[in-house]
UniProtKB/TrEMBL annotation:
<dbReference type="Pfam" id="PF18711">
    <property type="entry name" value="TxDE"/>
</dbReference>
<dbReference type="Pfam" id="PF00903">
    <property type="entry name" value="Glyoxalase"/>
</dbReference>
<dbReference type="InterPro" id="IPR040553">
    <property type="entry name" value="TxDE"/>
</dbReference>
<feature type="domain" description="VOC">
    <location>
        <begin position="2"/>
        <end position="116"/>
    </location>
</feature>
<dbReference type="InterPro" id="IPR029068">
    <property type="entry name" value="Glyas_Bleomycin-R_OHBP_Dase"/>
</dbReference>
<dbReference type="InterPro" id="IPR004360">
    <property type="entry name" value="Glyas_Fos-R_dOase_dom"/>
</dbReference>
<dbReference type="InterPro" id="IPR037523">
    <property type="entry name" value="VOC_core"/>
</dbReference>
<protein>
    <recommendedName>
        <fullName>VOC domain-containing protein</fullName>
    </recommendedName>
</protein>
């Protein structure tokens, strides 16, 4: 599975657009008073202005070249404050063979840069830039109807593990692709954050179909 596009409803629209363009240095594909789209490697991330200021937030991750995690972390440290978990500002996922660090954007989203040692490509670059971001790697779908969403995803041919845990986070997608929809319940705490997951509107366009969630 590949995430081709994700559409999020956010508050602090202008601040967030400026952050992704000027701080994270992603290419702005289009912008008007109600929406803005960025090129995130092979994916597109679109922010929709929430005129009602509901302050929705999401967790999502970007895959980066697997040999540039140290450089990516320093690049981020020069620009943003990294979030911490148990006093650490990075994590090594031994099962998934990946390294990650996290930060929060102006809209309150919990953003992760992840280097997957087995499924992401390497780069000949010795310094990190936004060009070393490969794609949207993970996108959260938080809902009170986890089982129903899991059935929908399975019906579209997405890889859903045999046992869906309605109380925990479920990674929908195959390991070899390095791309996942994070399907989970309202109320669980996000790693590297004190925030609890909330139901937020999202549209995720994948090469296996479109997934939508409502608040």
């Amino acid at each position: 599975m590949k995430i081709e596009k994700a559409q999020l409803l956010i508050s602090k629209f202008e601040e967030t657009v400026a952050f992704y363009q000027d701080v994270l240095q992603f290419s702005l594909l289009s912008k008007n008073e109600d929406s803005a789209s960025f090129q995130i490697g092979e994916s597109v991330l679109e922010f929709i202005k929430d005129k009602e200021e509901n302050h929705y937030y999401y967790h999502f991750a970007f895959n980066i070249h697997q040999n540039l995690f140290k450089e990516a972390k320093q690049w981020l440290l020069d620009r943003v404050g990294l979030l911490q978990e148990d006093g650490m500002d990075e994590i090594n996922f031994t099962d998934s063979k990946a390294n990650s660090c996290y930060f929060e954007d102006p809209a309150g989203n919990i953003v992760e840069y992840i280097a997957r040692r087995e499924t992401s490509s390497s780069s000949l670059d010795t310094v990190f830039s936004s060009q070393n971001v490969l794609c949207i790697s993970e996108m959260s779908v938080t809902t009170n109807t986890v089982a129903e969403h899991a059935r929908e995803m399975k019906g579209k041919g997405m890889y859903v593990r045999e046992r869906v845990d309605e109380a925990e986070l479920n990674f929908v997608g195959e390991y070899k692709d390095g791309t996942f929809i994070l399907l989970g319940p309202v109320g669980r705490r996000w790693l590297f954050s004190s925030k609890e997951a909330i139901a937020s509107p999202v549209t995720i366009v994948t090469d296996q179909g479109i997934i939508r969630n409502v608040a």
